[in-house]
Amino acid sequence: DSGVTQTPKHLITATGQRVTLRCSPRSGDLSVYWYQQSLDQGLQFLIQYYNGEERAKGNILERFSAQQFPDLHSELNLSSLELGDSALYFCASSVGGAVSEQYFGPGTRLTVT
Amino acid sequence: QKEVEQDPGPLSVPEGAIVSLNCTYSNSAFQYFMWYRQYSRKGPELLMYTYSSGNKEDGRFTAQVDKSSKYISLFIRDSQPSDSATYLCAMSARGNEKLTFGTGTRLTIIP
């Protein structure tokens, strides 16, 4: 158990809908990262927050947004869902600073029908 | 060309064999190198973490980094069926920064 929690484990929804994925980092970790894992693209970085502030953006679609709250948990919002958004979404956390070790949560499996 | 290249396998070896997994990369700015193990439909689990060039050993696992060749390796000694998983290499240029992953190598240890 990495100490990173994610909810829900599974989500099945229809095209055009909006969903929210939740992540709680390990105790003491200030950085939260979101990654998408699909069969054809592998693990792709979406966005990073550090102590409540957006720090870096990767290949995140405009239909996707995220935030990190004062208690350091994070939410990833996916809207106007398309079939191609079906994937595993992982949250990872790290202490921050000069540290690169990231610990991953169990993921949320999103299926768009 | 991808920044990180990793042979997807699959790789099958008998129990007890030494396994060698490798990645090459093109971005010379990468300084932090990691290996993750991922069981089917689970989150990646951090196995090894190294900074810059050199070797690091942890139990049956040894990670090697050769920055001059832009090549990293993970060796697993005395492989066990429980080692069957997908192994992902990952790297970053600076601390507290996104990771760039290889596509993963699927490994099966045959009892």
Structural topology:
The complex is a heterodimer of chains A (113) and B (111).
Chain A: E1 5-7, E2 10-13, E3 19-24, E4 31-38, E5 42-50, E6 53-57, E7 64-68, E8 74-78, E9 87-94, E10 103-104, E11 108-112
Parallel strand pairs in A: 2-11
Antiparallel strand pairs in A: 1-3, 3-8, 4-5, 4-9, 5-6, 7-8, 9-10, 9-11
Chain B: E1 4-6, E2 11-14, E3 19-25, E4 32-38, E5 45-51, E6 54-58, E7 61-66, E8 71-76, E9 85-92, E10 100-101, E11 105-110
Parallel strand pairs in B: 2-11
Antiparallel strand pairs in B: 1-3, 3-8, 4-5, 4-9, 6-7, 7-8, 9-10, 9-11
Would you mind describing this structure in some detail?
- The complex is a heterodimer of chains A (113) and B (111).
- Chain A is mostly beta strands.
- Chain A has no helices and eleven strands.
- Chain A has strands at residues 5-7, 10-13, 19-24, 31-38, 42-50, 53-57, 64-68, 74-78, 87-94, 103-104, 108-112.
- In chain A, strands 2, 4, 5, 6, 9, 10 and 11 form a seven-stranded mixed sheet that branches. Chain A has a four-stranded antiparallel sheet with strand order 1-3-8-7, with no helix packed on it.
- Chain A is globular.
- The N and C termini of chain A lie far apart (31 Å).
- Chain B has 111 residues and is mainly beta.
- Helices cover 0% and strands 55% of the residues of chain B.
- Chain B has no helices and eleven strands.
- In chain B, the strands form two sheets. In chain B, strands 2, 4, 5, 9, 10 and 11 form a six-stranded mixed sheet that branches. In chain B, strands 1-3-8-7-6 form a five-stranded antiparallel sheet, with no helix packed on it.
- In chain B, strand 4 and strand 5 form a beta hairpin.
- At the A-B interface, strand 5, strand 9 and strand 10 of A face strand 4, strand 5, strand 9 and strand 10 of B.
